[in-house]
Amino acid sequence: MSVDVPRRIVLLRHAKADWPQVSDHDRPLADRGRREAPLAGRRLAGSGITPDLTLCSTATRTRETWKLVAAELPQRPRTVYDERIYDASLGELIAVLNGVENEVRDLLVVGHNPGVHALADALAGEGEGDALSRMNRSGYPTSGIAVLGFTGEWKAVEHGVARLESFWTPKD
Predict the structure, then answer these.
(1) Mean pLDDT, rounded, of the chain
(2) Given the DSSP bridges, would you call strands 162-168 and 145-151 parallel, antiparallel or unpaired?
(3) Which residues pair with 8 in a beta bridge?
(4) Which residues in the chain come in under a pLDDT of 50?
(5) What angle do CA 105, 106, 112 make, to 5 degrees?
(6) CB-based contact 150:120 (threshold 8 Å)
(7) CA–CA gap between residue 125 and residue 109 (Å, rounded)
(8) Rounded Cα gap, residues 45 and 58, in angstroms
(9) Is the CB of residue 142 less than 8 Å from the CB of residue 16?
(10) Among 39, 16, 7, which Cα is nearest to 147's?
């Protein structure tokens, strides 16, 4: 693929999680999360974006979110469960993106806050309409989806390289 190919990064924060007496990594979805994740899946399906690859944190709540989202998609993309996404810093998340193969045009990342919000904010040099202000005002709630577009290779993803095309939350 040419380096000037338009690409998209879809950042999905996991659905609302419960707080049982388990490790943070093992926290399951709450009832609200199980209701909202399919809404996120339908929103993604309706957007016309067909991810080539999904990178999903290994945490229970992200895996459960992805299962419910993927069930709403017309086809399930190749999925890689990546432990680096759990509790990742902004720099670690950018490094994950920099390692994506250039054959991937549209990438979905299922992760956690504060990393997902920090990544969306850092990559978005600009945004469509009020998408940036809405994202920052909302604090990037659970099941929130940011779609960022950029042109170039994955290894060139860095601060300000993308445009925030849309931002959606279950409350929209």
Answers:
(1) 95
(2) antiparallel
(3) 106, 149
(4) 1
(5) 140
(6) no
(7) 19
(8) 23
(9) yes
(10) 7
- CA 66 → CA 7, 112, 135, 169, distances in Å? 21, 12, 21, 16
Nearby residues of 155 by Cβ (< 8 Å), 6 or more positions away: 98, 99
Residue-wise pLDDT for 135-160, tens only, equals: 988 889 999 999 999 999 999 999 99
Q: At how many degrees (to 10) do helices 90-98 and 115-123 cross?
A: 70
Cα separation, 153 vs 156, in Å, equals 5
What pairing do the DSSP bridges indicate for beta strands 145-151 and 124-127? unpaired
* pLDDT at residue 3 in the model: 63
State the pTM of this model: 0.96
* Nearby residues of 56 by Cβ (< 8 Å), 6 or more positions away: 62, 63, 66, 79, 80, 81, 82, 85, 109, 110, 111
Cβ–Cβ < 8 Å for 138, 169: yes
